[in-house]
Amino acid sequence: MEYLDFELPIKELMEQYQTCSLVGEESGVDMKLACSQIEDKIIEKKKEIYGNLTPWQRVQLSRHPDRPYTLDFINGIVDKDSFVELHGDRNFADDPAMVGGLAKIDGQSVMIIGTQKGRTTKERQRRRFGMSNPEGYRKALRLMNLAEKFRIPVITFIDTPGAYPGLEAEERGQGEAIARNIYEMCQMKTPIITIIIGEGASGGALGIGVGNKVYMLENTWYSVIAPESCSSILWRSWEHKETAANALKLTPQDMLKEKIIDGIIEEPLGGAHYDPQIAYNNVKKNILTNIKSLKNFTGDELVNHRQEKFIAMGRFVG
Question: How far apart are CA 146 and CA 144, in angstroms?
């Protein structure tokens, strides 16, 4: 496992624990007590560090290279062999940065859509680090329209530093594609549940983020701009990214306080990458609970519920 700068004290304790276990195995000496004491120290240190995270540290955790991505969550929550990935926007191309398809969760049919980063350097380049082109948003809209036709709940997973900012994306109508998705999602007569599983930045997130219910995992962030970009605009440098992260109020706790989201999904101590199965189970439970709560809404009621939710956000002071 890779460790972030603020996690180095945990790394040192983990190395001590591994050394202790190895000495016990090789020498035949009973090291159980010593190893147990180190384990206790590890738990205490984790509680100390992860119980007092700064906004910038949460941003770093959301980007942890071992953190589960959209396809990991899909494979972790759907019924075995039930996910059928669908490709293409029927207009230009298939965008690997946006994935989606039909699946079943405990027998419940769902349409799952999400931004997908890559593990290897080659895959990250192919998926553009989870930054979608216009065809990605148009593919997402095509799948949502298909789900609406058969009244299948839509689940969206957000983990993106933003929509792809390249020239070719602008030439093919990046802004229009995102705006069209927001417009159409506001009028869809099927339940939409949105979960931010990593980074939730700018219009790139909103393009699949208009849901009846919006949740964030514990170590994620959601904002109009990334801290580094904010810092570069205000101070012409990335050096003030921590200050920017504090000012942006981008943590799940901030979002819940401002009523931008409906709740926070708990992660295992230290983040979803420590025990992905716990994160999968918590997300799955959340999805099934919300599908049940929205099941009896009519199409028009779902539309009104979604629109009123987003209209109520923010406050204008004259």
Answer: 5
What is the number of helices (H) and of strands (E) in the chain? 14, 8
User: Which tokens sit at 18?
Assistant: 């591994």
Q: What is the dihedral of CA 169, 170, 171, 172, to 10 degrees?
A: 60
Rounded (10°) angle between helices 55-62 and 241-248 = 100
Task: With beta carbons less than 8 A apart as the criterion, state whether 133 and 104 touch.
Answer: no
Pairing mode, if any, of strands 154-160 and 108-115?
A: parallel
Rounded to whole angstroms, the Cα distance separating 124 from 127 reads 5
Look up residue 144 and give its amino acid: M
* Torsion on CA atoms 295, 297, 302, 305, rounded to nearest 10: -110
- The pLDDT of residue 24 is 80
Residues 272-289, mean pLDDT to the nearest whole number? 97
Instruction: Provide φ and ψ at 14, rounded to 5°.
Output: -65, -40
Please choose, from the candidates 125, 127, 120, the residue with its C-alpha nearest in 3D space to the C-alpha of residue 97.
127
pLDDT at 288: 98
- The DSSP symbol for 120 reads S
Cα separation, 97 vs 15, whole angstroms: 36
| Number of other residues whose CB lies within 10 A of the CB of residue 304 | 12
Q: Which residues contact 317 (CB under 8 A, 6 or more apart)?
A: none
pLDDT one-digit tens code per residue, 192-218:
999 999 999 999 999 999 999 999 999
Cα-based angle 191, 196, 199 (whole degrees, multiple of 5): 150
